[in-house]
Amino acid sequence: MKFERKRVAKRLASGLLAGALAFGGLALSGASPVAAETPLTNRIAGVDRYDTSVALALASVQTGPLPANTVDHIVLASGENFPDALAASGYAGSLTTGGKKSVVLLTRAGALPETVVNYLSNTANFSSPLTVRAIGGTSAISDAVLAEVKALTGVTATRVSGADRYATAVALSAAQTPAATKVIIVSGSSFADGVSAAGWAYKSQQPILLSGPNGLDTATKAEIKRLSTATPNLEVTIIGGTAAVPDQTISDLVDQGVKYAKINRIDGADRYETAVNLNVAILGNLGFDGSKVALITGTNFADAIAAAPYLGVTSTHTVLLPASGIPASVAGLAVALAPNNPASVVAIGGFAVIPNATVAAVKQAVADLGKYTTTLTAAEGATTATMSVTFPAGVVPVAGQSCAAPICLSSESASKWLGTAGNYFVNGINLLSFAGTSVTTAVVGQVLTATITLPAGFSVPGVTVSFPGIAEGAASDNAKFSISAASATIADDSTKPTLTAVSAVANSGAPAGPTAGVGLAYLLASEALGTTGTSDLVAADVSVKDKDGAAKCANVLVTKVAPVYVLGCLNPGPQAFVAGDVITINLDGIADVAGNLGGAVGAKQTITVGAADTAKPTLTRGAVTVTAATATTFALNLTSGTVTFSSTAASSLHGQAGLGWRLVLQSTSGNIPSVTVDAAAKRVVVTANFAKHTGDDIINAIKQNKVTKALLTAVASGAGGADGANKLATSYIAGDQISPTAGQSTTTIALNASEALNSGLPLNPANFTNATCSGLTVAYQSPALGVTVSCGASATPFSGNIVLGAGAVTDLVFNASDANPTGI
After folding, report:
1. How far apart are CA 142 and CA 690, in angstroms?
2. 507 and 571 in contact (C-beta within 8 Å)?
3. Confidence (pTM)
4. What is the mean pLDDT of residues 348-361?
5. Domain closes at, from 334, 364, 394
6. Where are the beta strands (DSSP E) in 381-427?
């Protein structure tokens, strides 16, 4: 009978070869499948869950830290019943102590699958001595299966089991040596959330214990008590929401000696979001850096459980997927795992559970979220070029960063790439090859702007400024981030500058000189003129006649108060410009920054002076913007030290808005504290067991409430911090209210002008005052159609009018505004 079975297995192995290859890199060596993960493979699979478990076993030892492709420990788990198999993940990981290798193989209850027989028949797969552990009772894995293992390997399998699934999980935990200091708890009724933790449990060697729908059973409570006694700061991670693992489980944990502060729940709207949130939680720990993800079906437990060793050995994040489509939470995975967006995406299981289209869609979503689009501009005559880059949501651009080397490495951040001169080229020549060049960066929101100082003489038409772009990790399946290439060729600016008259008026606010207070003419250029005497407007370019055609000014004085040119007339003494006077400009005497002359040699422009503008500008109050600058804080006293609550930018009590808020203490006899925010009543409510809960417990209560966590942070300080003995101050009673230290906010008020202002004249802050804010700052709006008045960070809300002094603003013809003592 045994001979006949082996003969069937051999036929199956040879017959499955072509099909295995179709799964992308799965081949057969002798009678056993071999999986290879390469940038072209991206899939580890077999013809069924048992075959996939063998492929994963081979893949985990091939990609592990040791050179030998052999295993020291085999954990045999049910492929038909999830609870025992799920709890085996952490136990299998604990067997790797001392550099050993362990794998998880799935079996049917009554007999070993053919592919597992093939694997066990090949002694080249094992080290000596080999151990085999069968997880669960005889209903999960029969004695006949253990007899087959003995016949194939010569090893007597050890059974680890209990009276039920909960007791089996306890037995697995108890079998770990030394006793665990961290524990994972998942639902014993459903695999939905728990399978996402299999790889993490294996790598961290954390036992997985099971919770019932009404809390922990007696055996699990006893195991928690044993572990918390051995490790007073035992850490417990609950995977799944309250529908899967009820709050009663948390209360049971506290009753068995676990500190509430050491309990953390990771959940989501569904199993897929829970898996994503777990990925975020473990990011940066034990090699889980976000660079590798595995796509695994969330509709069945088998592939995820069998993959635990592979996921743990390679520190690969688990991403659960439904039968079709990609949940929104998974589509945002690149943001969740930033800055190391996944560079390797591997599918676990066959096409039926993870179709190629799904793999491609996830990879595309990852790639899209890691793309940075650039815009580069350069203009004739400008000494700088500008490149703007919009960073994807969730990735924070940083100004002022650059790489240490002339050219950045692919592993360095996008901000550094954009701030490094060696990454830019002028006419194909590296910017570093030129003297006097540099790159500076600034950030506004998600946009980083790089200003590139061009080499002298390269601001002319035809010069190309370029950035080659980067595809980080291009040899892998996906780039962690990519910055698109950009270039700009300086175009020939052929637009000629012109001048127009604003007005003529006698104004004492005009520039000082022999013509001050006499009627002056005011001209505006259509664009910025050059700054040298050969391109800017000078007296030699100007002649004046009166309305009857008679020469008027023997000498013209030109004063530039950007953006206005002020003309004064001497004949030989000061003489006023009047309406009807004709000003003639030699257009070949002016040029813009690109060098375009106002006209051909001899070309002229005539400008007729208009009526005098004597209207004074006025200001009216516009939009008021209040921006929170610092947090509102509450100090909650402990028996030794303090817990300080701070508002976040997302909360309604941030900045000055914290005025009128209170922290209210409520009492409970239960094991679970809570912190909630009631915006309508302006209350932060802390509910705690005054005799039991510590500062750390209250801090953790904030972290465990998704809504509160977005609104508040908390830290402990002072002697004793918030350790297990550091409870609320004994002076507190239920109903006590604590006033905050309100945060500070900045206030910005737009003052809109009745006409365009002369932004070339400096504003005097002393002309803008307010009773509630000393030291207002003022700046012109852009364009100069008003000014912006700002009050710096203050805990006192801005109120009252802004009082204006005489000459607070000036229009283009130097008419100064009147004082407004009552304010606006």
Report:
1. 52
2. no
3. 0.77
4. 90
5. 364
6. 384-390, 425-426
